[in-house]
């Protein structure tokens, strides 16, 4: 606490005025510092508010893009599944027609026709698989059942590629191998061959 000299009828007026002037300057300096601090904090608050708004807009855009991508992915998966099932049905019909045609021919000519048909089927299946992998990136979109189907399709294609095979010591034609394979598939129940 400041002590003032005493004068007649109170404290010395000059000392009191000097103290008040000094105290006033100190308070004004503090007020200016606080006003600058408030101004700086307001600018920083405005900047952060603008950034927050920008981040919020970006978040909405990204979440919208993710939702749209998921919808596109789901529709692509459904479309792919439809295409695969349709192509599977076409291949079965094609194979059935050609097998019936081959069985109707003379026994000596049947093996030759079946070889040609099997070669055509194998080439067609390979081209279809290549196109599907190229267009739709199948490895990421396939379910377990679809992967099993493609694996079975490749296995059957490789089976049909070998025209003559040996089974239990006897030579068999491709048609005989396919008939035996079809009989064993129906006894397994699920239709897929486990390797």
Question: Could you name the key traits of this structure?
Answer:
single chain; 4 strands; 195 residues; 5 helices; mainly alpha
List the helices and strands and how they pair.
Layout lengths: L5 E2 L2 E2 L1 H92 L2 H30 L1 H4 L2 H18 L3 E3 L2 E3 L1 H15 L7
Antiparallel strand pairs: 1-2, 3-4
Helix pairs in contact: 1-2, 2-4
Structural class: mainly alpha
**Biggest sheet: strands side by side, in what order?**
1-2
Number of strands: 4
Order of helix and strand elements from N to C terminus: EEHHHHEEH
Please state the average pLDDT score: 76
Describe this structure in words.
The protein has 195 residues and is mainly alpha-helical. The protein has a domain at 75-188. Helix content is 82%, strand content 5%. The chain has a two-stranded antiparallel ribbon. A two-stranded antiparallel ribbon has the order 3-4. It is rod-shaped and about 145 Å long. Mean pLDDT is 76; it is low at 163-172 and 189-195.
